[in-house]
Design the sequence.
């Protein structure tokens, strides 16, 4: 895409204060912004304006935000970032499993918001695949290198000896680098649709992966835990 | 006051039958030993009626038992034995006396119970008021500073960039502090009582929770170093991860806002038998020993701790920590380290023998 091309972002939010600061922030960062405060208008604007990214507040006055996600996903893959004040972790996981690309909990920092938007836009361009992976079959973040052709992961050039299951988890997170992947979707991907809802096995695998890739387990650099929701791989280099 | 649930009813019926049976047995034995029965029988049954009235709820069981007692005395312990005789003039009187005893004692019991309940409610109300006062105090302070900073910015166009940035970052800092307070408040609403019912427990890896708590801690205040000592083994601990993460975060932020001269936080996790112990220590000025016993009460103010260098108090935060840990079946305590500085440590029951 050319540098002059401006991305259009639809903000679906009913709080005036938040709308105001989002509009100012996004405009200052060279995005075009369209605003609406109802779910009904949002659905109309998504089909008429074709935004590049949607910032969606789950708690709208006229309809449940999850309904909007479901409805949009039935015909479009426009990235949706859920912005929610909901406190319960299951709600976040549910929105993600319905097809939202990412979520932010209110209150959020502007740096974080802009990073999420950039990630979502990048993912939507290179279709499900990460650009790096599409080009040379590798994903790199920091010293971690995931080689999708050889099914190997390296830290600073050294093979870290992941088991096949561990590699598949890392590979999945790498494909969605920068985005949170829910426990449920990892379980489904690796253990099939009948996977139990008990994520203990996943936790144990993750603990073992961390012991292999993280220099300091207490301050993870590559894979972050979104407590109660899922895991997030650091952005690619 | 009447308990309507079946369990209470069954309990009361059991007490009534049991006490009457015991009275009958004792009177029977005494009658056999002493040959004569009259001096004991009536007083034994009055005693049992009094006991029943005291131990059961409401008036029903006491009244029923006085009726039963009269029938029992009449049939078993007075001539003619084994026959219920109504035409003896003393029995209506005995019955009336027993009934009166039962009614008086039931009335007293009911009154005492009502007073206890009132006192308990008053205490709860007092605690709630204290908590609300602590919260209002916690919220008002940062709000004052936010309002002051924003109006200073609006009304003084001649401020230089550095002054403006200073005020703006102060606004951000205070807002983040308010966020922490609301998060703790939301947790308080999850815990109406110290029940484990509201927990969403899953087996979590201890270091994963420590890691995510530290990542969150870094996001809000990156200055203070955190040193961790984690076990090599993969420790599985059943817990509500979101809540335990909040406990760790509260304890670390408590160091930032309260521990004077602290330069680092030490975070330890280790297994102790069938429990896992998490410890958060600092090398600051320590906790005033006078405050230690009531530090988890929820309304210790920095004004009267004499320890805090900051105007904020962590009262709600610490009391939230305590209710979370208690609901998990663990314990939390605060102490001063021998080497100087404060320490908080809590335990959680570990998963039973399921390491991989």
Sequence:
């Amino acid at each position: 895409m050319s540098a002059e091309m401006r991305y259009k972002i639809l903000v679906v939010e009913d709080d005036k204060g938040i709308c105001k600061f989002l509009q100012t922030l996004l405009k200052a960062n060279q995005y075009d912004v369209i605003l609406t405060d109802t779910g009904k208008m949002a659905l109309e604007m998504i089909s008429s304006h074709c935004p590049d990214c949607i910032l969606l507040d789950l708690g709208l006055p006229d309809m449940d935000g999850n309904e909007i996600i479901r409805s949009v996903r039935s015909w479009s893959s426009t990235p949706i970032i859920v912005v929610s004040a909901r406190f319960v972790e299951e709600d976040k996981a549910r929105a993600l499993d319905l097809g939202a690309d990412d979520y932010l909990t209110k209150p959020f920092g502007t740096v974080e918001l802009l990073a999420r938007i950039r990630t979502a836009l990048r993912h939507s361009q290179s279709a499900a695949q990460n650009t790096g992976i599409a080009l040379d079959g590798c994903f790199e973040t920091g010293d971690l290198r995931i080689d999708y052709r050889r099914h190997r992961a390296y830290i600073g050039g050294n093979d870290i000896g992941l088991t096949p299951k561990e590699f598949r988890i890392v590979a999945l997170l790498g494909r969605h680098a920068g985005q949170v992947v829910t426990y449920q979707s990892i379980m489904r991907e690796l253990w099939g649709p009948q996977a139990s809802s008990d994520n203990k096995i996943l936790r144990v695998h993750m603990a073992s992966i961390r012991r292999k890739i993280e220099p300091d387990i207490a301050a993870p650099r590559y894979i972050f835990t979104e407590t109660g929701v899922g895991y997030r791989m650091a952005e690619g280099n | 006051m009447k308990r309507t649930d079946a369990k209470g009813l069954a309990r009361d019926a059991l007490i009534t039958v049991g006490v009457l049976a015991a009275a009958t047995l004792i009177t029977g034995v005494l009658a056999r030993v002493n040959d004569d029965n009259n001096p004991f029988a009536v007083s034994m049954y009055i005693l049992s009626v009094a006991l029943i009235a005291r131990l059961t709820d409401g008036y029903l069981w006491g009244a029923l038992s006085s009726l039963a007692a009269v029938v029992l005395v009449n049939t078993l312990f007075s001539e003619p034995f084994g026959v219920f005789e109504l035409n003896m003039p003393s029995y209506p009187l005995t019955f009336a006396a027993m009934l009166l005893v039962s009614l008086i004692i039931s009335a007293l019991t009911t009154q005492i119970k009502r007073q206890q309940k009132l006192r308990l409610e008053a205490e709860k109300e007092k605690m709630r008021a204290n908590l609300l006062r602590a919260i209002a105090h916690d919220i008002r302070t940062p709000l004052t500073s936010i309002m002051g900073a924003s109006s200073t910015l609006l009304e003084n166009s001649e401020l230089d960039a550095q002054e403006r940035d200073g005020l703006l970052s102060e606004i951000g800092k205070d807002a983040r502090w308010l966020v922490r307070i609301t998060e703790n408040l939301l947790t308080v609403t999850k815990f109406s009582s110290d029940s484990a019912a509201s927990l969403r427990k899953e087996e979590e890896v201890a270091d994963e929770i420590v890691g995510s708590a530290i990542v969150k801690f870094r996001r809000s205040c990156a200055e203070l170093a955190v040193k961790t000592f984690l076990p090599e083994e993969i420790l599985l601990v059943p817990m509500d991860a979101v809540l335990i993460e909040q406990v760790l975060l509260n304890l670390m932020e408590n160091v930032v806002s309260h521990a004077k001269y602290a330069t680092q936080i030490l975070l330890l996790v280790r297994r102790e038998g069938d429990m896992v112990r998490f410890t958060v220590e600092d090398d600051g000025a320590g906790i005033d020993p006078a405050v230690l016993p009531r530090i988890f009460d929820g309304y210790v103010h920095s004004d009267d701790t004499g320890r805090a260098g900051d105007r904020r108090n962590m009262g709600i935060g610490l009391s939230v920590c305590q209710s979370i840990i208690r609901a998990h079946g663990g314990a939390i305590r605060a102490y001063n380290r021998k080497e100087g500085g404060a320490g908080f440590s809590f335990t959680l029951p570990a998963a039973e023998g399921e390491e991989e």
User: Anything to note?
Assistant: The longest strand of chain A covers residues 8-12. Chain A has a mean pLDDT of 87. Residues 110-125 of chain A form the longest helix (16 residues). The radius of gyration of chain A is 18 Å.
